[in-house]
Amino acid sequence: MSERRASTYEAAGVDIAAGERAVELMKDKVARSRRPEVVDDASGFAGLFDASALLRYRRPLLATSTDGVGTKVMIAQQYGKHDTIGIDLVGMVLDDLVVCGAEPLFMTDYIACGKVVPERVAEIVGGVAEGCRLAGAALVGGETAEHPGAMDADEYDLAGAGTGVVEADALLGPDRVRAGDVVLGLASSGVHSNGYSLVRHVLREAGLSLDAELPELGRPLGEELLEPTRIYSLDCLELARSVEVHAYAHITGGGVEGNLSRSLPSGLDAVLDRSSWTPPAIFEVLAGHGRVAQEDMDRTFNLGVGMAAVVAPDAADAALRLLAGRGLPAWVLGEIVEGTGQAHYR
């Protein structure tokens, strides 16, 4: 009878050295997201943030959010591009915080993969760090877990959690919205990170390759679908500091109508003008090649509106000027009227 080899963690598929290498590769990228309030923990077991920064608030409310990027990771894996999916994660987490007016402070991430490839993990985390920098937040920690046997070697998934703070009397939301308010649409950068199960279904049914060069897009389909989620945090915070903003709505799964309705009181509607903007070409590509009905497009995708802002009527022009000066396309999307708490197209 042959002698059995001793079992080891490495034989089970976990490479500790690769994990340590990934940490070294990502250190410089993570450092670029640092805020002054971050305190080093020599052990590395926890991320520390100096809470004395909250003393400048009269009544600080902490806000928290957690999310992932859904099946967009499958497009990144198939296309072999991993440096922007972390930006998507930040957009999904921290732009939810800013809806209530909260300033994002810090974030942590979690990556699960079938096999730790240090360079790939560093690319993913580098994207998270860049997204945090764009949002004005710090990436204070995270975890990379190797799951051999549970995931294929090239598979991974990621999730994150973020914390922010808002002054209690500056909290934005439905109770501030009034009849006559103006709804602004803030442009998305593309599909963002919602609806990718339908995207992948359309690609399969239409036989579209991620390398396909479609004249409507001007670049490979994979590049278009991996365009990172636009991060609105700093723009929305500056807008709320400068003009009278009553509410925001982050347009994710559920589309414009579904998400904007969440930011309305029960007695008011948002009446939207579909002719006020032209959705990016990628949505026409998906609808055409997939024969997707308008109703399904509306409730699945952002259709070019990544964030909506509800502002006082006399603040609309100043708001549009401010956003234009920050390089963020925006327009009058609709108005607030008496109703039953729904957003809908006229």
From TrEMBL:
Where is it mostly found? cytoplasm
Q: Which GO terms describe its molecular function?
A: ATP binding; phosphoribosylamine-glycine ligase activity; phosphoribosylformylglycinamidine cyclo-ligase activity
Report the domain of life of the source organism. Answer: Bacteria
Q: What class of enzyme is it?
A: ligase
Quote the subcellular location field of this record.
Cytoplasm
Query: By its UniProt entry, which CDD domains does this protein fall under?
Result: PurM
Q: Which residues form the PurM-like N-terminal domain?
A: 53-166
Q: In which pathway does it act?
A: Purine metabolism; IMP biosynthesis via de novo pathway; 5-amino-1-(5-phospho-D-ribosyl)imidazole from N(2)-formyl-N(1)-(5-phospho-D-ribosyl)glycinamide: step 2/2
Query: Which reaction(s) are listed as its catalytic activity?
Result: 2-formamido-N(1)-(5-O-phospho-beta-D-ribosyl)acetamidine + ATP = 5-amino-1-(5-phospho-beta-D-ribosyl)imidazole + ADP + phosphate + H(+)
The chain positions of domain PurM-like C-terminal read 178-341
In the record, biological process GO terms are: 'de novo' IMP biosynthetic process; adenine biosynthetic process
Name the Pfam families for this protein: AIRS, AIRS_C
Gene3D superfamilies recorded:
PurM-like C-terminal domain (3.90.650.10), PurM-like, N-terminal domain (3.30.1330.10)
Q: What InterPro entries does the annotation carry? A: PurM-like_C_dom, PurM-like_C_sf, PurM-like_N, PurM-like_N_sf, PurM_cligase
For the keyword Ligase, the answer is yes
Q: What is its EC number?
A: 6.3.3.1
Spans through the membrane: none
For this record, an example GO cellular component is: cytosol
Q: Give the UniProt keywords, A-Z.
A: ATP-binding, Cytoplasm, Ligase, Nucleotide-binding, Purine biosynthesis
Protein family: Belongs to the AIR synthase family.
Q: Which PANTHER family match?
A: TRIFUNCTIONAL PURINE BIOSYNTHETIC PROTEIN ADENOSINE-3, TRIFUNCTIONAL PURINE BIOSYNTHETIC PROTEIN ADENOSINE-3-RELATED
**Entry protein name:** Phosphoribosylformylglycinamidine cyclo-ligase
Q: Which organism is it from?
A: Nonomuraea wenchangensis
Gene that encodes it:
purM
